[in-house]
Design a protein that fits this description.
- The protein has helices at residues 20-29, 46-53, 94-118, 126-131, 141-150, 157-162, 180-189, 214-227, 241-254, 280-289; strands spanning 5-6, 34-37, 59-70, 80-87, 193-196, 231-235, 257-260.
- Helix 1 (20-29) crosses helix 2 (46-53) and helix 8 (214-227) crosses helix 9 (241-254).
- It has a seven-stranded mixed beta sheet.
- By secondary structure, it is α/β, with parallel strands linked by helices.
- The chain has one domain: TIM Barrel.
- Helix content is 38%, strand content 13%.
- The protein is built from ten helices and seven strands.
- It binds adenosine monophosphate, zinc ion and fe (iii) ion (2 copies).
- The site of one fe (iii) ion (FE) has 5 residues, from loops.
- The site of one fe (iii) ion (FE) has 4 residues, from loops.
Length: 297
């Protein structure tokens, strides 16, 4: 069984810097044995990644990072954005393709609206931002960040995200995403294994509000486990240390798959390939459960 397993990485098919073939080269150089390409709301990078991986000795697991949201029952609560990884999905599945298409279309409209708002205070045009997006790629705030950095407004993506691109800021516009229940169902229907990405980045973030007692947190997760949630990405740099402890308790309670991954986006984010990895026993569980596609070698 191969050992260095990184199950979360992005390419130019969404908001990564590396072309899919470049990502494979970088992963090989980093000593990765198994890599999952998990672009936001698209699998369009898979073909080129598969071509590059053929004969290299590395295994490529088809994946997706689907945008989703959770809306609490309390009136007036703000929807929380949640990312759902899907491993071993069938890239040809129609319902998944339609859902991804719908999200991408709304992401495009949303990014245009954000650029309109930003253009009041920053010298920025939609043409410049759309030039930063690879043809057909899933648009995201990092594409705006790139233009603002190129123009000297910010030193790096993190600074732009701490500034005008932050979700709580005046320029932010939310985009459509399916409710988490539906996102899980879509992944399962496409033969995939649904794993929550970076589930605990703060008390109020995530699929379940974490600023409540553990029994309430467990009850919150139980609903998603019953809907088909199979795993948690616990070893991720954006989960807090106390959050990882809570997540380990949740995983133990429901016998969930536990993963770790880099969430590599290229040179503009600090996340390095292989900085967090998944145990081979957990990959085995994923491969046993996935029916939509097999790893490519
Ligand atoms: P969006 O998809 O437009 O909501 O933007 C979210 C994306 O931006 C995620 O994929 C993150 O990888 C990236 N991102 C979020 N926060 C930061 C940050 N502080 N620094 C760099 N990239 C970030
Ligand atoms: Zn991203
Ligand atoms: Fe994410
Ligand atoms: Fe990601």
């Amino acid at each position: 069984m191969p050992s260095v397993i990184d199950l979360h990485a992005h390419t130019t098919a969404s908001d990564g810097d590396d072309h899919p073939a470049e990502l494979i080269q970088h992963a090989l150089a980093a000593g990765i044995d198994v890599l999952a390409v998990t672009d936001h709301d698209t699998m369009s990078g898979l073909g080129q990644a598969a071509e590059a991986v053929t004969g290299s000795g590395m295994l490529l697991l088809p994946g997706i990072e689907l945008s989703a949201q959770v809306i609490d029952k309390e009136p007036g609560s703000i929807p929380r954005s949640v990312h759902l990884l899907g491993y071993g999905v069938d890239p040809e599945n129609v319902a998944l393709a339609q859902e991804m298409e719908k999200i991408r279309s709304h992401r495009n409209d949303r990014l245009r609206l954000m650029v309109e708002k930003l253009a009041v205070d920053y010298e920025l045009t939609w043409q410049e931002v759309s030039d930063a997006i690879s043809p057909g790629a899933t648009p995201g705030r990092p594409h705006i960040a790139q233009v603002l950095i190129d123009k000297g407004y910010f030193p790096d993506t993190s600074a732009a995200f701490a500034g005008p691109l932050r979700a709580e800021g005046p320029y932010h516009v939310p985009h459509y995403a399916p409710r988490l229940h539906r996102a899980i169902a879509v992944i399962v229907e496409a033969g995939g294994v649904p794993v929550l990405a970076h589930p605990y980045t703060g008390a109020r973030s995530g699929a379940v509000r974490h600023d409540q007692p553990l029994d309430r947190i467990l009850a919150g997760y139980q609903v998603f486990v019953e809907a088909g949630l199979a795993g948690l990405e616990i070893n991720h740099r954006e989960n807090t240390e106390e959050g990882k402890e809570v997540l380990r308790a949740v995983a133990a309670e429901f016998s969930l798959i536990v993963t770790g991954a880099s969430d590599y986006h290229g040179t503009r984010k600090p996340n390095a390939l292989g900085e967090n990895t998944t145990d081979p026993s957990q990959l085995e569980r994923i491969l046993e459960a996935a029916t939509g596609s097999s790893p490519i070698s």
